[in-house]
Amino acid sequence: MGDIAGARASALREKPDAILLDLMLGGSDALALIAELSEALPKTKILVLSMMNEAIYAERAMRAGAIGYVMKSAESVEVLNALKCVLEGRVYLSPRIFVGMFGVCSSGSTKQSLPGAEGLSDRELQIFAIDRSRSSEP
């Protein structure tokens, strides 16, 4: 399935143990889909496999309900390890992003002042991504 509606329907029908989800599914906001599925299917583990910048999207995906985030550029063994972790109910993040997120949490700050796209709300980021994809069309 290549769109949000298809992914939603399939997940709700099949009730899988785990979902491997690409943030670039067509049709709507994948972060909203993660939130919807994590509420509707609380036993289903969601692992995001994406080419989207993990420094921007991993935390957003985790806040939405995913328990893992791995880049599409990762080696196959890392993707398999991420899926295994998620199926066991453990959180998976790349070491680089884990250290970055841990640093924010350990500083005691609940809101980080971030430059650029990192400082945008989820909706602002979605609109920006849609606008960028339209501007690159021929």
Task: List the SSEs and their pairings.
Elements: H1 4-14, E1 18-21, H2 30-40, E2 45-50, H3 54-64, E3 68-71, H4 76-87, H5 95-106, H6 122-135
Parallel strand pairs: 1-2, 2-3
Helix pairs in contact: 1-2, 2-3
Walk me through what this model shows:
The structure is a single chain. The protein is mainly alpha-helical and 138 residues long. Helices cover 51% and strands 10% of the residues. The chain is built from 6 helices and 3 strands, in the order αβαβαβααα. It has helices spanning 4-14, 30-40, 54-64, 76-87, 95-106, 122-135, and strands spanning 18-21, 45-50, 68-71. The chain has a 3-stranded parallel beta sheet with strand order 1-2-3, with helices on both faces. β2 (45-50), α3 and β3 (68-71) form a beta-alpha-beta unit. α1 (4-14) runs parallel beside α2. The longest helix has 14 residues, at 122-135. Mean pLDDT is 80; it is low at 109-115.
